[in-house]
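Fold Annotation — chain and its backbone

Fields — amino acid sequence, structure tokens

___
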Amino acid sequence: MSFAPSTRKGPVGVAVIGAGNISKQYLENLTVFPDLKVLVIADLFVEAAEARAKEYGIPEFGAPELALNHPDVEIIVNLTIPAAHVEVATAAVNAGKHVWTEKPFSLDRESGLGLLKAADAAGIRLGTAPDTFLGAGLQTARRIIERGDIGTPLTGMTTFQTPGPESWHPNPAFLFQHGAGPLFDMGPYYLTALIQTFGSIRKVAAVGSSAKATRVIGSGPKAGEEFAVEVPTHVSAMAQFEGGQSSHSVFSFESPRLRMGFVEITGSEATLSLPDPNYFDGELKLWRPGAEEPEIIPATGPANGRGLGVLDMARALRAGTPHRATGDLAYHVLDSMVSIAESVESGSFVDVISNAPASAAVPEDWAPETATL
């Protein structure tokens, strides 16, 4: 889809729908980027929206309709629970607002494709987390790989293993329901990093399991409450990419030993260890044949945190250029995760039909804190 430059000038008006835990990470940045102006925060629980509004100096708060109908809001930042992502994003599209949505893009292919088609017909931009691949860590990795420092990229390995979020999250049940689990909750970070390196995924194969039928909340006001586990809590997946490269990934809520943020790309000449794809910064390690120790490479570029994708969308909106963390990319990640889940069920390879569009690199001097609009 091509976009004409926005007829509006100056900072882009933003509204946040969803005042839960993740909203704090976004608002720390959205409220200080000079090219954005957060006008509204909304939630079904208006008191939660009011608390966030007071905390971050946001002028208006209320129910979601306030954000959807606000004449000065151009981008809706959709931070609702996964089950509500498509419903809220569709309402925003119908209201003529561009939408940034937390991951996952949707919970199934049908609703995701419906959202893509609705936005395309309306000329609306869709953007979706993770935007961590826009940060210094993964963008530095991209520059290293594209420069040829590891030779031809051949294979990838990723690992995410924890005991599970129920020990620290005050309301973790939704993370063990349809549309979540370690695959759908953490998979977008790792799969996006792999897709940015190798291109579109063409087929997958996976196995999965659940060690427990129920889990117990370990902290907060609901501590001691038991809840059902509805999805696999350990998934081991292989993927083959459009250029023939392959990867192996583990997503687990069943490991007493923490192994988080492991992403490794092996090329014909060297191996590159990437920073944690759930973060925006971190050093890289380049392993060459015969070397006893890796070369440590610091990341360079912007590393502000969640909200970089919203800012990128806002600047692209004014300029009429493509933004980077697109709905099409997010749908391909979703399609790949659904395919992995189907492979767990069927025990066979599953083809991935969708494609991930290439995104432009982020310049090292891209400055979120600088006013450009």
Q: What stands out?
A: The two ends are 23 Å apart (CA to CA). The mean pLDDT is 96. The CA atoms of residues 3 and 10 lie 18 Å apart. Residues 12-132+306-325 form a domain with the Rossmann fold fold (CATH 3.40.50.720).
